[in-house]
């Protein structure tokens, strides 16, 4: 999953998250435990996975980590290592993490629920739902006075394009160009939904719609569209249509007091000190109270066990324990490459044919496992700024989840590729895929 090197520092949306509190009910398990050999795995191979994670804890690169591997709907490996914080209590299976941009696939599912209800179509212009985006312009150059030289957009971005980060919007979390710098000053500082929309509309797109993959605020835009089309807050919609049916009792946009003690301590890799330090600043979202607006791009907290229910639902084609969230054909659509031929035939990272990866609807997608890595073709995945990661591999009927709580993890060579390292160890241990 080399594309995470590009997004590792920008996976969090910095808008304040909002909505409902995580419920206080216990989290039921959807899974039974199976011997690794019964699912085609080598016990010794999975021991190497565990040893790798424990080694990162023992050498001080992580305070703690929790991982889960599920095949054929059965848990074949579920481990916790270390502590919730370097000076904290032991890591537990019900430890809660800020999942940042791992929120994005959940928002995508919310969108597709409304898609199935006929509330929107993939080729609709986004301006149909957010009229302020009807007359967007595209960046050309910076004028001597600091203003932007722009040209009209050929057309408004489509819904398909905002779900595949190809609509031309930016993010601002890595302000290495004039538009991202403007997003950081304006869009990410917005305090209301209308201010957020207005500030985006005032800024030019980075490229004509459909011509470039650019990680962006598109999923926060999706969250606003969910609210408009459903007449509900994003938090309430997710709760009633996703979390309650799936019994995801530890997932939400904020934590009540009785659950705050289960939250893992959040750290930041400090380039100056060359070590992990307690995280502070704008990336540390306040999840102790209901915030002003929900961030569909990065506001959720969750547990490994809860997100496993979400992953298994998707692997099952949209259903879990008799509760259908999406149709199988809708899940297939989400994990189908949605990028244009121009993008896929280009040489810009991280998604194109040469790299064997595309991007579906709020998921990265493996198109060629020989180029993209060990996961089977059709694998879909994403992750979060604090180091959480997952992939769902329909070809091998498995998924894997890992959760740590480290911002800027790419600064530490020992953990920057923890997702790639775990994938190699998992597939090395899969000795008999036919089982």
Automatic annotation (TrEMBL):
<dbReference type="GO" id="GO:0016787">
    <property type="term" value="F:hydrolase activity"/>
</dbReference>
<dbReference type="InterPro" id="IPR001466">
    <property type="entry name" value="Beta-lactam-related"/>
</dbReference>
<dbReference type="InterPro" id="IPR012338">
    <property type="entry name" value="Beta-lactam/transpept-like"/>
</dbReference>
<keyword id="KW-0732">Signal</keyword>
<dbReference type="Pfam" id="PF00144">
    <property type="entry name" value="Beta-lactamase"/>
</dbReference>
<keyword id="KW-0378">Hydrolase</keyword>
<feature type="domain" description="Beta-lactamase-related">
    <location>
        <begin position="49"/>
        <end position="412"/>
    </location>
</feature>
<dbReference type="InterPro" id="IPR050789">
    <property type="entry name" value="Diverse_Enzym_Activities"/>
</dbReference>
<feature type="signal peptide">
    <location>
        <begin position="1"/>
        <end position="23"/>
    </location>
</feature>
<protein>
    <submittedName>
        <fullName>Serine hydrolase</fullName>
    </submittedName>
</protein>
